[in-house]
Amino acid sequence: MSDSDRPLTYAQHLRLDRLLSSQERQSALKGQPAHDEMLFIIVHQAYELWFKLILFELDRIQEIFSGPVADDREIGQAVHGLSRIARVQKLLIEQLDVLESMTPLDFLDFRDLLFPASGFQSLQFRLLETRLGLTRAERLTYADKPYDALLSEPERARIAEAEAAPSLFDQVQAWLERTPFVSRAGYEFSAAYREAVLRALGGDQEAVRRNPSLAEEALEAEIAALDAALTRFKSIFDAAAHAKLAAEGAWRLSAKALQAALFINLYRDEPVLQLPFRLLSVLMDIDENLTTWRYRHALMAQRMIGRKVGTGGSSGFDYLRRTADRHRIFGDLFALSTYFLPRSKLPPLPEALRRAMGYSYAEKAP
Ligand code: HEM
């Protein structure tokens, strides 16, 4: 019987020979075996396997958004893949608990042997950040080096390739910009909604001014915050103002995409907007999970090494904590909630538009 005729076994299918012989403790190689290095290796390997799956899912999701027009029938498939990514991320956050069963002293038994290897060298993590939409320009730097400085030449080439291709952020932005219904003959969402929100925010300012319990300083801070929110809101409908704020980093999405995202969120009860709404929600889940992971990882690093510098040469905890604030991809979708109005105050959609947006399966009664 030739090899290819033999019935497939569990071990062959999963290539267990390779997989299970890939845990080599540096501490054992150097003659000072540290028990917990096995846990450290396996947790990292499990991460890399899940990163591989995330990138694999992204291949299909990005393919769906790659044409000049995304087929609506396939958007459901994209949402499904994104939901899988979000679930995997939950697992990635929980895995940190397992690693934290290692104490800082257990870690010190082998940490010095790892220099200068570092999480900075996880190519797959960099690829997934980049493919989701984190750009080089938005990244924090460490030791004044580019973020891929610690990668090999071929790895840097893969990063460059990913950077040159449209990211999921770019693709979703283009898809949002094509959203129908936002502007139709006889209806401009921007005009209808802008007025309603300006009234609401103006009302909030009045309420703050009339609040007798606010000290002068607190009152001024609240008014300033509302002013900033107002300026940011107006910029969604004003190209020049939007360009200025985008240059300052206040918005990532284009004005057109922001308008569409607002529209989808506000009128998501319309059947045709339900899937787009789910898409935006799952992108927020992914952004939130990534941020949670960054923060949890930073805390874990602090617990393990305190204020020591990282093996890759960063400031360690401080750098990692700052990435949680700064390395957001779909943060604009969160910021938009500032401008949501209760359903009771939403400007109603014109009837003809509502009809165009509904599904009408029902046969007319005879
Ligand atoms: C004892 C456990 C760990 C400690 C103390 C730790 C510490 C650190 C530190 C200090 C950095 C900053 C870079 C540097 O200067 O080296 C870093 C970066 C990183 N680590 Fe960990 N880490 C641990 C576990 C993990 C695990 C389990 C993963 C999973 C893959 C991971 C993935 C990463 C990644 C992707 C980065 C780059 C983050 C970025 O630049 O945004 N780390 N780690």
Explain this structure.
The chain has 366 residues and is mostly helical. The chain has a single domain, classed as Methane Monooxygenase Hydroxylase, Chain G, domain 1, CATH 1.20.58.480. It contains 17 helices and two strands. The chain has helices at 10-13, 16-19, 26-29, 37-64, 72-99, 104-108, 123-132, 153-164, 168-177, 189-210, 216-235, 239-247, 255-266, 274-305, 317-326, 331-335, 351-357; strands at residues 183-184, 187-188. The longest helix has 32 residues, at 274-305. The radius of gyration is 25 Å and the shape is globular. The mean pLDDT is 92. Bound molecules: protoporphyrin IX containing FE (HEM). Protoporphyrin IX containing FE is lined by residues 43-44, 47, 99, 107, 118-120, 122, 125, 297, 300-301, 304-305, 310-314, 316, 319-320, 323. The site of protoporphyrin IX containing FE has 24 residues, from α4, α14 and α15.
Layout: helices, strands, pairs:
Blueprint: H1 10-13, H2 16-19, H3 26-29, H4 37-64, H5 72-99, H6 104-108, H7 123-132, H8 153-164, H9 168-177, E1 183-184, E2 187-188, H10 189-210, H11 216-235, H12 239-247, H13 255-266, H14 274-305, H15 317-326, H16 331-335, H17 351-357
Antiparallel strand pairs: 1-2
The protein binds protoporphyrin IX containing FE.
